[in-house]
Design a protein that fits this description.
This protein has helices spanning about 80-90, 110-120, 140-150, 155-165, 180-195, 210-225, 240, and strands spanning about 5-10, 15-20, 25-35, 40-50, 55-65, 70-75, 95-100, 105, 125, 200-205, 230-235, 245-250, 255-260. By secondary structure, the protein is of the alpha/beta class. The chain folds into two domains: about 5-35, no CATH class; about 70-100 and about 110-260, P-loop containing nucleotide triphosphate hydrolases (Rossmann fold). The chain starts with a strand and ends in an 8-residue tail after the last strand.
C-alpha cells in the first residue's frame, strides 16, 4: 500500500483538478474533468455610445466566459466599462458588436420584447437601491417576476413564501418596505431575484447603501446562495466585497485588465 493525498480545485474555466501524489512510488497523476457548461459566453463584445458629435467606446472587445455555479466579481474604476458590461450581461442593453450567449441562447441582437422575456426567465437582479414597490408587501414584491411569467396565484404564493423563508424574512412577509430596515429590504430584493430560479444572480453594488454590519450579513447570504448551487455575478468597486467572490475580473478602459481566481476568498460562517 502507498500513501495518497488528493487536492481538488474547481477552476474558473470549469475544470476539476484531482492531483494525487503517490509517495512510495514517487509520481504524480493529473486528471482533468469538465464539471459544468458555460452559462455566459461573451465574445469580442464592443459597445459604443454617441454623445453629441463624439463616440464613446465603453467596451473594446471584451471576451469572458462564466460557468454554471461560479461566483464572480466584476471590478473597475469609473469609466472602466464595468457598468456597461453589467448592462450587457443583464440584457438591459445590446452590444454594438460581438456575440453574447446566455444559457445557450444568442441574445446579442434581440428585440426589446425578447430581451424582457430573457431577463425575467434567466436573470435575477439585485440593485443597490433595492427597487421595491413601496405600496407592496415583501411577499407581493417577491411575487412580481412570477406574475410577469404567468404563474398561477397559488403557485406564486407558495414559491414566494419558500424564498422569503430562505432569506430569513418569514416574519416580515406582510410588511411594506418602509416598515423594514435597509438590510431587510435588500433581503427582499434577493428573494425576488431567486424566485424564478434564474440562470444567474446579477448583483449591482448590493451593499452600497448598507452599513458595515448589514453588509456582512448580506454577503453571508450571498455565500449561502452560492453554496446551494446558484451562479452569482457581483459588480462592485469595493475591494473587501469582491473578496467574497471566487474569481475576480477587473476592467480598465473598456478591456479586461485581469481575470484571476481569488486564492483568499472571504468565507463567513
Amino acid at each position: 500500500m502507498f500513501a495518497s493525498n488528493t487536492i481538488k480545485y474547481l477552476g474558473h474555466k470549469g475544470y476539476s483538478y484531482d492531483k494525487k501524489l503517490d509517495q512510495n512510488i514517487n509520481f504524480t497523476h493529473l486528471t482533468i474533468t469538465f464539471m459544468s457548461k458555460p452559462v455566459i459566453e461573451i465574445k469580442d463584445i464592443i459597445k459604443h455610445y454617441e454623445v453629441g458629435t463624439q463616440v464613446v467606446k465603453a467596451l473594446r472587445g471584451v471576451t469572458v466566459q462564466i460557468n454554471k455555479g461560479e461566483y464572480v466579481a466584476i471590478m473597475g474604476p469609473s469609466g472602466s466599462g464595468k457598468s456597461t458590461l453589467m448592462n450587457v450581461i443583464g440584457a438591459l442593453d445590446t452590444p454594438s458588436g460581438g456575440q453574447y450567449i446566455l444559457n445557450g441562447t444568442d441574445v446579442s441582437h434581440l428585440t426589446d420584447e425578447k430581451l424582457a422575456e430573457i431577463r425575467n426567465k434567466e436573470i435575477g437582479f439585485v440593485f443597490q437601491t433595492f427597487n421595491l414597490l413601496p405600496r407592496y408587501t415583501a411577499q407581493e414584491n417577491v411575487m412580481l417576476p412570477l406574475i410577469y411569467a404567468g404563474v398561477s396565484k397559488p403557485d406564486r404564493i407558495e414559491r414566494a413564501s419558500q424564498v422569503i423563508n430562505k432569506v430569513g424574512l418569514q416574519e416580515r412577509a406582510s410588511h411594506k418596505p418602509n416598515e423594514m430596515s435597509g438590510g431587510q429590504r435588500q433581503r427582499v430584493a434577493v428573494a425576488r431575484a431567486l424566485v424564478n430560479n434564474p440562470s444567474i444572480i446579477l448583483a449591482d453594488e448590493p451593499t452600497g447603501n448598507l452599513d458595515t454590519k448589514t453588509s456582512v450579513d448580506i454577503m453571508r447570504l450571498f455565500g449561502d446562495i452560492h453554496a446551494s448551487g446558484n451562479t452569482i455575478i457581483l459588480v462592485t468597486h469595493e475591494e473587501d466585497i469582491a473578496q467574497h467572490a471566487h474569481r475576480i475580473i477587473r476592467l480598465r478602459d473598456g478591456v479586461v485588465e485581469s481575470d484571476i481566481v481569488n486564492k483568499e476568498v472571504v468565507v463567513l460562517q
